Sequence to fold (419 residues):
Amino acid sequence: MNSKNIAPDIISSSILDVDAIRADFPILRQKIHGKPLVYLDNAATAQKPEQVIKTLDNYYREYNANIHRGIHTLSQKATEAYEGARVKVQHFINASSIKEIIFVRGTTEGINLVAQSYGRTRLKRGDEIIISEMEHHSNIVPWQLLCEQTGAVLKVIPMNDAGELIMEEFEKLLGKKTRLVSVGHISNALGTINPIEKIIKMSHAYNAVALIDGAQAAPHMAIDVQALDCDFYAFSGHKLFGPTGIGVVYGKQSLLEDMPPYQGGGDMIKMVTLEKTLFNDLPYKFEAGTPHIAGVIGLGAAIDYVSDIGLENIAAYEHGLTDYAISAASGVTGLKLIGTARDKASILSFIMDGIHPHDIGTILDQEGIAIRTGHHCAMPVMEHFHVPATARASFAFYNKREEVDQLMTALEKCKEVFK
Fold:
């Protein structure tokens, strides 16, 4: 870790200097409709610190070149930065080797890679895949497609009205036909932190492979894939304060070695003739074509940034902020929280009597407050709670209690408008 990336007064073993952190995020200084921006849409995408922005600018200004192919200085420098970022990701999630770190466009592509490269070659008619009722569409649709392709059967872990998975029902779903289990670490629509350690262990007891969608978890808690013993883990850079269009899928080396390439061309080859292609070694076998070089390097800078602050510090601070928001929301009459799990992270999803979530979002925007409204790419969750949509405020370590207070004041204004 490079502590030069952020000012030392930001780092604390117990609390965060949020004002110092906020100074690193230039977008937070602007006004929306004449009012200071209160950005509470972090579950959709997080803002970028100056350190990441400068890293991207520096790449394009000083050593923009393709990687792995050139012997000239710029190519060598770009390759070194790109592969250095892979090492940072390896350490960030505690993978055992850089061969287990595959760069993709995001969590969605990572899940699709596993579905097509692992699932399509391993599953057959009658095999079973298990997901949960609270999944993001990106962890539903790829498995539906795979079932259509192979004849496999998709089964679903139900949840209770608190937004918690019913583990007894999961146990009933597991069986000799279970081949793969894919669940989210944290629900993007509810904030529920799922018991993935238990889910992985139970899956392995039936010799099933376990994939974890970590899109919402990677920015908020420390990830250790070896301790979890998951087979695959996917996350996105843009939610981790890095660039858009870049993500990671981790896979155990033994599984990746046996999987065919996901795409063909470019760096995924060792040798090509018109009759046959010899594929490259890991991890390059799964990285066809010119990759998002700047995105990978920017992701490395984002990992430096959050690592220097400390994921434990971030988790502790955000836990307190979320508890504060839940308590404040309880004082707003007519507001109902959707998702009240005991183990919850950084998301406040809610509805209000007589006010459509889209109207809430519009009024809040006039107050300079950015939240997300809609189904959050989790339509089955909305169906479970019998609502068309929710309003969702999602927090990051640069948010403050004062911003929560502003949110609650603006929600009271919504009630006045629709009185």
